[in-house]
Amino acid sequence: MHDPAYRVPLADGEHVIESFHTDRAAYIRDHVLMAAIGGVGAMAGMYLMGNPDFWVGAVAALAAVAVRGGYLASEDLSARWDLTGTRLIGPQGRAARLAEIEKLNNLGSAIQIVTRSGDKHLMKYLADKPAVKARLEAAIRTAR
User: Fold this and answer.
1) Sequence ranges of the domains in the chain
2) Is the dihedral of CA 88, 89, 92, 94 positive or negative?
């Protein structure tokens, strides 16, 4: 779990309406996809450079993504985003006022939150991204 010290404190009278958590299946699926794309890219690059052992690219990509996934799993899988009536509060001190959110972009199983001032936040590894996005869009409309 994230240290509570990384959480943004709620303002007086502010309360959490809904929380959004990362999903282990989405985390694994995204890492398998990264490994597949990375493996194909690494093999193609090695093949184009004339390396006869181009297949090593796939093994290296799989190993790299597996190590990354294992190393960051505890942090990534404990991330939580809290929706209040006025803000979206994320892990590690991230927060965006709902009225200041300009766009919600789709990125794989993630939603990129872009504010009017240009700040960007990423809600990663969501199990039901369309439902989360619809909920955020409704909250943003209500806050304006």
Assistant:
1) 16-22+80-143, 24-76
2) positive
- To which H or E segment does residue 41 belong? helix 24-48
Tell me the residue type at 7: R
Q: Which residues does residue 121 pair with via DSSP β-bridges, in sequence order?
A: 113
Classify 125 in phi/psi space as left (phi over 0), alpha (psi -120 to 50) or beta: left
**Rg of the chain, C-alpha, whole Å:** 19
Which pLDDT tens digit goes with each residue over 47-93?
999 999 999 999 999 999 999 999 999 999 999 999 999 999 999 88
- The CATH architecture annotation of domain 16-22+80-143 reads Roll (2.30)
The pTM for the full model equals 0.83
What's the rounded Cα separation, in Å, for the pair 53 and 65? 20
Separation of alpha carbons 106 and 84, rounded Å: 22
3-state secondary structure 6-26: HCCCCCCCCCCCEEEECCHHH
Amino acid at 134: A
| Residue 82: C-alpha distances to residues 21, 65, 79, 122 (Å) | 9, 29, 10, 13
